[in-house]
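Known limitations

Files may contain more than one protein. Parsers should not assume a single record per file. Below, a two-record file is shown to illustrate correct handling: read the sequence, read the token line, then continue until end of file.
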Amino acid sequence: MSGVEPGTPCWADLATPDLTAARRFYPELFGWTGRVSPQPEAGGYTTFLKDGKAVAGAGPPATPDQVPIWSTYVATDDADLAATRVEAAGGQVLVTPFDVFDQGRMGVFADPAGATFSVWQPMAMRGAELFNAPGSMSWNELVTPDPEGAKLFYELVFGWHPEDEPMGPVTYTGWRCGARIVAGMTPPLEELPADLPAYWSVYFAVADADATAARAAELGGTILVPPHDIPQGRYAALRDPQGALFSIVTLPT
């Protein structure tokens, strides 16, 4: 894959105060290897590889008080224009777009409900090189108490069109970008802590959700939502030892 279309999630990375622990936990969980950036100013930023292909990253937090978090990056042709649209739509620019060496240009934003996300304008680095295979990113999902506000915001920022689908007691929304559904949105799940702010959840594909969840607990993580079947496969929500949320899913074969 040479890169993903603008408006499509293309990368995920972890901001964590304990990079050493993250470099130990995730490779043991997903079979990743880590490649640490040689530039001192990168702060030890680590690109995780699966079968030699870049799948995700991890780096130090942007501010000392930032909670450990997985971030979704959406591909864009123009990070600065995205920042302008975020502000016009009522969001916040948390980190003004800047160049990451020769790799790409990124910015960090928050939607009106407080969910943070990033954009990536690719240069040398196009984004993840593997999707939907075990150990790689397979889905990105906004969990928000204000779905209607999010529909307006993300359409203005990315041109996404929401498509609602009833799923039991809640309405699930797919974000359409061109011909494809590229991400999703759901109201907060009852199983998750009630005080969680709006956030973007990153899903990683795994061969066996039950075994991976059990392994995460063995490694010091927490199972927030035990493995169970959903229409898209078998899913679980986890928290790493430092507190960062992420999800896993075994996709149907």
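...continuing to the second record:
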Amino acid sequence: MKQHLLPLLAAAAIFTASCQSKSQTNTDNADVKDTLTQTLSKEEVQAEKIDVSKIKVADAKTILARKQVPILCYHQVRNWKPTDGKVGKDYIVEIQNFKDQVKMLADSGYHSILPDQLYAYLNTGAPLPSKPIMFTFDDTDMDQFTIAAPTLKKYGFKAVYFIMTVSIGRKRQVC
């Protein structure tokens, strides 16, 4: 068990290392659940089933020799407000820019993958779709579900959402 848990934790750390922010959301739990139910179908919520516990961990040389997969990390998808500071704007992608980015990736033939698929690929060479890409969302902002998720769904993309349960019900801290 330990031999499988450590690589998984390491992979999670790598996925989130480039996506750290102090932003928080003031959201009611019921609102989040309602929005998720309206936005994502049951099939989209369920990831492709890959049993990572059965994957033998490859050595670093093997993993590093594999072609890299781009991982995009978004924090907020909304238009800038006059109260947004310089640092805050670094974490905000304006709505039309996000929609244009996703459309460009779809038009360019990219296919989204999930962490288990990447893990299997890195360790075993499991096949990935052509032009794989991973979308991730950090820090749980409602716009990720009301704006980003429907945009991704429109193009058949899936994403990973890192939900900060510690921030539910707290007021947002301004960057």
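Parsers that stop after the first record will miss the second one. For reference, the second record is described as follows. The first helix runs from residue 2 to 17.
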